[in-house]
Each structure stands twice: as structure tokens, then as C-alpha cells.
Amino acid sequence: MSLADVEPVETLSRPALAVELTDRLRTLIMEGELKPGEKIPERLLTERFGVSRTPVREAVKVLAAEGLVMLVQNRGAVVSELTVAELEEVFPVLAALEGLVGELAALHATTQEIDDIRRLNNEMHRAFDRGDRPNYFEINQQIHAAMLAAARNPTLAQHHQIVARRASRARYQANLTPERWAEAMEEHDAIQRAFEARESKKLGALMKAHMEHKLRSLAPAIAAKSGGG
Amino acid sequence: MSLADVEPVETLSRPALAVELTDRLRTLIMEGELKPGEKIPERLLTERFGVSRTPVREAVKVLAAEGLVMLVQNRGAVVSELTVAELEEVFPVLAALEGLVGELAALHATTQEIDDIRRLNNEMHRAFDRGDRPNYFEINQQIHAAMLAAARNPTLAQHHQIVARRASRARYQANLTPERWAEAMEEHDAIQRAFEARESKKLGALMKAHMEHKLRSLAPAIAAKSGGG
DNA sequence: CAATTGGATTATGAATTCATTATTCGTGTC
DNA sequence: GACACGAATAATGAATTCATAATCCAATTG
């Protein structure tokens, strides 16, 4: 094997600052360190990350395109709000995309992938039985990610990610009632069954409905939080 | 009425160069003046629009986030390709979103809007009878836009637009066979009926299927074009 | 004392300059 | 003559500088 056959190594050249910044800024917003409604002066970011304004501005533009921040002419960037109205706007879109994830995953997943997801599903059941919420959420995320990968559609993945990021800030905050949790587990099982049977349309419909139910259980909690303080 | 009650006028301050540039660049790509695979050196754009590289770079970053161009480290921007594989990736996403447009439009449209769209549908029929393709496409677009507006969901509108733009470059190129055209008209009528009955789920399913059929009629034509030259 | 106005300050928008990475082209060697 | 090496050129990445709009604050006026 000659050196000419070796794939170019990306690791040698570190990613562009703008890309790096976009990721880190996104994380700051996602983890709530930058809160909805908060203004983000460029100076703050240049100091925090030790870079000039140029890459900062490029990163902010991208985040604006993703809907995580709002840009106002000559007044800079503000972290997007997360009102109930916003959620009711975002979740149906996420549900529609989730439905497609299911349809495509049923068509394109390898048996290996279906197996892996079954294992995750079992693990999630054990977390549920223990009442271990952090672990449940963690595995839940993994299942979604695995499904998305199995769908084999980068465009879908991209848009799903962008919408999911906007929604997930709420998902982490909101509390899960025992009733809704049990319901969700049943839905997950039905999803897994359709998946293993490769019933594309059915799986799509189930996953779409699952996400819609999630909104319905979340909205009141968010509304209470906004109203209460 | 005092001056304090007057809404601030946006027209006085012209939009930021970066925004303006983003729109115009997008148009150039959409209309095919910048072709898929073509490199877009920054210098070219600064000369064409008479601005510095700073706003150009910001605009390109946004277009990359939208998927219209690809960015390669230290090698600039390239107009995204439009292969059959790409189309088969983009269309299902568009179909899923289109389905949601239907569901929501059925729920939220005013009777006025339904009426307007019925009129457009009738007009489209006349264009079909005349065999007037440009007019047919034009009205078709208007119907889609009206449906999107009736859905009352800005997030959906945003993602729909982004995905539709990627797809539409193909849509204009491809030729419509008489058979497919007649079929499409029937689908449109079914869509209109479900719309007027406000059958949300059914309308969603019909619009999703309509888009999926469109892909199936387009893909061979695109494949032939790619293969032939 | 409240409200408005004008200047000072600060932030963003855009252009320019500097640094680093690709690309091109010519030379030399096998 | 083909390939490899290296200097010259041109592109992009990032920082700095300049211009302009928004905000803040004090002074003035009713």
C-alpha cells in the first residue's frame, strides 16, 4: 500500500474558527448558558473565545439561518425566544420529519441496525423500570439518532437536527408525568414492532404521532412555567 | 393621531448588504446563472456587486447553511450538485413537509383562502386545457404559496422554502409528460376537495403523495439528462 | 420636576490589511 | 518525456481599521 492510497487526514488542519465558533455558540444556547431573549454582543464572544469579530459574525449569521438567534439591523443578535406559540409551531414540523425518518428507516435499515435499536429499546425499558429519568432520556436520544442514521438521508438529517435543536431546549426543561412516561413507553414498543416488521408507512405514522403526543404533554408545563415566572 | 402612534418605517434604512447579497446570490443560483458544480470565487462576487469581501463571505455562509452551496476548507464555495441521488434525498423531505402544509392548512385556512385557492385551481384547469405549461407552472406555484400561508406556521414555511428551492432547480428543467400532467390535475382536484371538506389528515396524505409522484416522474428525466451529457 | 434634545459613548456594518493555505508553473532529474 | 520538487502566484481565513447607526446620559427648558 503506497502513501498515494491514503485518505487525506482532516485532523492535521484544525477546522475553521467560524465553524468551531458556530458549534460552541450553539452548545452555549442549547445548554441554556445563553438564555432565550438574551442579547449577545459581539464583544462578549470575541473576549470569551479570544478571536476577532470576523469569524464571530459569520457564526452568528449561520445560527440565525438555523433559527437559534434573531438578528436585528444594527442592533445585533438575540437568542430566540421559546414561547408556547413557538413550540406549537416547531413540534408539528419535527413530527412530520420524524414520520419520514420512520418511513425511510423501515426501508433502509440493516438487520444489524434493527437489532441494535432493539437492544437500546430493552435498555430503555430497564431505565423506565428503575425510574431513572436521565438514563431514559439519554437512551431515547440514542434511539432517535440511530433511527435517523438508518434513514440514510443527509438532507432529512440536517433539517431534523435544526428543528430538533430548537425544540429540545424545551424538552430538557419540561417534566415528564408518570402517566405520560408509561404511555411513551408503549408507543416506543409499538414503534419497535413496526420497525422490525419493516412496515414503513405504519412506522412513519407512529413516530409522527409519538412526537405530537410529546408536544401535547409538554405544552401545559411550558405554559405554566412562562406564566408562573 | 400623533406621530407617536406611527409605525416605524423600515424603508428608510436599506437592508444590510449581507442580506441583499444573500438574496441576489440565491437568485443567481436558482435561475441557473451559477450552475451546479461551478466554483464561486469571492473576488468574482465582490466585483460583480461592488462590495468588499466581508458581506460576501457572510452571505455565502448563509447559503451554505441552506444547502445551496458547499464550502470546502481554504478552497471556497461551490454551487451544490443536483444529482439524481440528491433529488431522491430532497424530495421525500419536501413531501413530508408538504403533507404537514396540507394538514395545517385544512385546520387554519379561512373560508376566504379556500375560495381563493379554488379559483386558482379553476384557472389552472383552464391552463391545462389550453396546454399552457408556463401558466400552469405559475399558478401551481401560487397555489402552493397560498396553502403555505394558510398553514400559519413560519417555521414550516422556512424549512419548506429552503428544501423547495433546492428541488425547484430540477423542477423547472424537467419536462412534464402529458400522462403525468393529466394525473397531476386529478391529484390537484382531489386535494382541493379534501381542502374544502377540511379533512386535515387526508389532505396531508394527498399532498405528500402528490409530491412523491412528482419525484417519480422527474427522476428518469433527470437521470437521462445527466447520463446523456 | 418631567420631558426633550444634543452630544458622548458604544455597538454594529463594511472595507482594508495581514497571514496562511492552495494552486500554478517552471525547472531539474531519472 | 514523465514525474517530482520548489518557487511564484492567487485564493481563502482572520484581524484590524474605518464608517455609521443606536444607546446612554447630562443639560436645558417648559
UniProtKB/TrEMBL annotation, chains A, B:
Superkingdom, natural source: Bacteria
Kindly list the GO molecular function terms attached to this UniProt entry. DNA binding; DNA-binding transcription factor activity
Q: Which CDD domains match?
A: WHTH_GntR
Query: Which keywords has UniProt assigned to this entry?
Result: DNA-binding, Transcription, Transcription regulation
Q: Which SMART domains match?
A: FCD, HTH_GNTR
Protein name as catalogued: GntR family transcriptional regulator
Q: Which SUPFAM superfamilies match?
A: GntR ligand-binding domain-like, Winged helix' DNA-binding domain
Which InterPro entries does this UniProt record tie to the protein? Answer: GntR_C (IPR011711), TF_FadR/GntR_C (IPR008920), Tscrpt_reg_HTH_GntR (IPR000524), WH-like_DNA-bd_sf (IPR036388), WH_DNA-bd_sf (IPR036390)
All residue ranges annotated as the HTH gntR-type domain in the record: 15-82
One Pfam assignment: FCD
Q: PANTHER family of this UniProt entry?
A: TRANSCRIPTIONAL REGULATOR, GNTR FAMILY (PTHR43537), TRANSCRIPTIONAL REGULATORY PROTEIN (PTHR43537:SF50)
Q: Does the keyword Transcription regulation apply?
A: yes
